[in-house]
Amino acid sequence: MRQVASVLHLDLDAFFAAVEQRDKPSLRGKPVVVGGVGGRGVVSTASYEARTYGVRSAMSTREARSRCPHAAFLTGRFHAYHATSRAVMAALREVSPLVEPLSLDEAFVDLAAADLPDLEVETVRAVGERLRARVHEVTGGLTASVGIGTSKFIAKVASDLDKPDGLVVVPPGGEQQLLRPMHVTIIPGVGPATAERLRRAGIHTVADLESVTLDELVRLLGRAHGGGLHALARARDDRAVEPERETKSVSVEGTYDTDLTDPRLLAGLLTRQAGQVAERLRKHGLSGRTVTIKVRLHDFTTLNRSATLGSPTDHAPTIGRVARTLLAELDTSDGVRLLGVGVSGLADWVQEDLFGTEEDDEDPEPEVEVPSSRRSAWAPGMDVVHADLGRGWVWGSGRGVVTVRFETAETPAGPVRSFDVTDPDLAAWLPDEEVNDG
């Protein structure tokens, strides 16, 4: 823990939903839910207007619709989220060279590496205010909540205290006073299982946790976990802000509208996903030793199986062969709703297999008709362009008809028109860089 409040955590408020409201004027000030829109979908982000009805991240879309049936339910537009995130991260690097992105919508910033006259509370508070204004400017109106403290832990806790569009600075020496009344789940690593174990021991708040000795916590939770909670309950956190976060795995997965039972189809899916993983590995100059498959069964049971190779590989047939072997060990006869392949244990080199089979010598997998993920051709929220009416977004589709609202972030709320799904004048729209990459 530092002697000054020099770690800043920035969290964009309701990020995916906020981007949708920015780019869709007719949705501003209204409930918006981003995530899977099908019967098995899950909420990724809910706008604050939707949260007033009890809609939360990770909630099933079915429940979200029952709580807030008048919300706009949209699939994600990741090109828009990535572009906005890049603008935000660039703004953070204007403040300090040490920026550690955690995800598209949050990052740590080390203010000790910034060119500041001092690190007094009022100085860093002013930096936080300027940064929030800068984020609002570069994102076209999005808001961010900022926390500043003597450690990553404290800064992240602080950024959540005054949402949305808030700023909280925890002065040095005020950390434990802040933490003590809070529930133990505020501490990273205290999930439902750990929280229940602590509850049974009569530990509910951080103050309760602080009163427990290290030996007691080690007996209760194990040496590593117990020791970590013992330190964090006392606000001890010496983790540095690390601008380069190492990629730990590369994976691809898909969720399907109907349960899949055909072994030949499942093998085909794994083969295709293995090819996509291998392509991503090669694109980034990486290889990996451990191949993992993820299988979610019809009853929502999720299984993971892994195998480790003798040396790193980026060879699609090798990854696919290992993945299919792992799948064959599982009973999938009652149906699979999610399937994925990943490679971890990454390295930046590949050991050629001198005695292995060459790609051209391997028996090709039979062609299969791969079902699409739950996203339809005209998914709600996706960007489209019409030859005469210009750009808009899909309001909804079904029974051979797609309905579009024609508006963008730069226009007022626009008109709604319906078209045949095969109308040649209507097409999906992507920014030029996405088209070139695809």
Compile the SSE list and pairings.
Blueprint: E1 7-12, H1 15-23, E2 32-35, E3 43-46, H2 48-51, H3 61-67, E4 72-74, H4 78-95, E5 99-103, E6 106-110, H5 121-138, E7 144-149, H6 152-159, E8 167-169, H7 175-179, H8 192-200, H9 206-210, H10 214-221, H11 223-232, E9 249-260, H12 263-283, E10 287-297, E11 302-313, H13 316-328, E12 336-347, E13 383-386, E14 390-398, E15 401-405, E16 416-420, E17 426-428, H14 432-437
Parallel strand pairs: 2-4, 7-8
Antiparallel strand pairs: 1-6, 1-7, 2-3, 5-6, 9-12, 10-11, 10-12, 13-14, 13-17, 14-15, 15-16
Subunit structure: Monomer.
InterPro entries: DNA/RNA_pol_sf, DNA_pol_Y-fam_lit_finger_sf, DNA_pol_Y-fam_little_finger, DNA_polymerase-Y, DNApol_IV, IMS_HHH_1, Rev_trsase/Diguanyl_cyclase, UmuC
Cofactor: Mg(2+)
CATH superfamily of the largest domain: Reverse transcriptase/Diguanylate cyclase domain
Q: Give me the CATH architecture of the largest domain, please.
A: 2-Layer Sandwich
The rounded Rg comes to 25 Å
Low-confidence stretches: 352-363, 434-438
- Helical content (DSSP H or I, runs of 4+): 25-40%
Would you tell me which CATH topology of the largest domain applies? Alpha-Beta Plaits
Share in β-strands: 15-25%
Protein name: DNA polymerase IV
Subcellular location: Cytoplasm
Domain UmuC: 7-191
Family: Belongs to the DNA polymerase type-Y family.
